[in-house]
Amino acid sequence: GAILAPFTNFNSLGPVPVGSLSSLTPFGTFDMPGNVREWCWNETQGGRAIRGGAWDDNVYEFDRVAQAPPLDRSPKNGLRLAYYPDLDAIPAAMFQAQAVAEGVRGFYGEPRVPDAIYQVYKERFAYDGTDLNARVEHRVESAGGWIREKVSFEAAYGGERVSAHLFLPANTPPPFQTVIYFPGSASTWGDWSEDIESYYEYSMFLSFLVTSGRAVLYPVYKGTFERMDPALTAIHGGDGSRAYAEYLAQLVKDFRRSVDYLETRPDIDSQKLAYYGMSWGGPLGAIIPAVEDRIKASVLLGGGLPYTPVEQPRPEADPFTYVSRVKAPTLMLNGRYDAALEDGIKPMFDLLGTPPEHKRLILYDTDHIPPRVGYVKETLTWLDRYLGPVNR
């Protein structure tokens, strides 16, 4: 994927434009999963369009339009050339500028929900303190240097049970500081979580926390893994339906019941709990720490407010309703070329109710998810600051 002259047409030979293959082949859309993150011909607000998933991207990145400066030389970028025997037959729209966001909300001008109404909305995430009826389903020692327990407990709704994977460090004495994870969208695609250590989110986003001496709890939230439901997958990113508002309430209750469970364990320091949301879990970092005051620190990887009208939830399910009520120290780690930077990421950071000296936004020269070396270093530094260094 050397990028020598990516925007030059050599006798009808040039980079594939966004969406072109859908009109030239029977295969449907242009996007393909795999190591095929490729430059496109089309300009964007922040540079040039780039599509497809690279080797280190989240697996669902293959169907997103990203952008980067034309001179970006990241090793994960590639280039595919296409020959058009009859260039005049290609619709001109294929080569036009590509919008990475159409129609945005003006968060700074939107009125804040009054406190009395906010309290009504907040009650949607409350529940009666019933018995957890918790149990440890199994416990295994991993070659990776940790102990993994699969636990389960009763949900706060519908007679369901929530299962969760608890990773305990082998190099640190209890009680453990604990990070509670909220995953990316790939978790909503189903499959079982039994082999969670082989799932890419654990190895990429979580294992470093355990090897550094902290426990990690990865709940199987409503609509994820073995609790997957296609109807919930379709709306999990947020929309204006009552169904989504109800689903969000169940997700937050699952998180809060997970905290309830951790409080029952003598090997967990329940005064040192952190929220860690990646991608899908990022916007929920504007809600969960607002309604769950047992969280002492928050790390949001690739998060931001939903900023297009099509994503705008009802007010009781809108992160904007809650973001100014967040008080926990919050670290946001984002890409400088993420399409949401100006319209969703910066507004989220600015509107967080966390005191200025206890919130931080770090931008990296990437789009959605920062490089691993960056978020590992900054996440550990943030947790050391607000939970304290671990006692190895």
Outline the structure in words:
The protein is α/β, with parallel strands linked by helices. The protein has helices at residues 21-24, 115-122, 200-211, 230-235, 242-263, 288-291, 319-323, 341-351, 372-387, and strands at residues 13-15, 38-44, 47-51, 65-68, 81-83, 135-142, 146-154, 161-169, 176-182, 215-219, 268-278, 297-301, 330-335, 359-364. It has a nine-stranded mixed sheet with strand order 6-7-8-10-9-11-12-13-14, with helices on both faces.
Features:
392 residues; alpha/beta; 3-stranded antiparallel sheet; 9 helices; 14 strands; globular; disordered N terminus
In short:
The chain has 392 residues and is of the alpha/beta class.
Write the SSE topology.
Layout lengths: L12 E3 L5 H4 L13 E7 L2 E5 L13 E4 L12 E3 L31 H8 L12 E8 L3 E9 L6 E9 L6 E7 L17 H12 L3 E5 L10 H6 L6 H22 L4 E11 L9 H4 L5 E5 L17 H5 L6 E6 L5 H11 L7 E6 L7 H16 L5
Annotation field: number of helices = 9
Order of strands in the sheet with most strands: 6-7-8-10-9-11-12-13-14
Gyration radius, rounded: 22 Å
Main sheet attributes: strand count, strand direction, barrel closure:
9 strands, mixed
Strand content: 15-25%
How many angstroms does the end-to-end distance come to? 44 Å
Report the average pLDDT across residues. Answer: 87
Basic shape: globular
| Helix share bin | 10-25%
According to DSSP, the number of beta strands is 14
Q: What is the chain-wise order of helices and strands?
A: EHEEEEHEEEEHEHHEHEHEHEH
Low-confidence stretches: 1-13, 20-32
Structural classification: alpha/beta
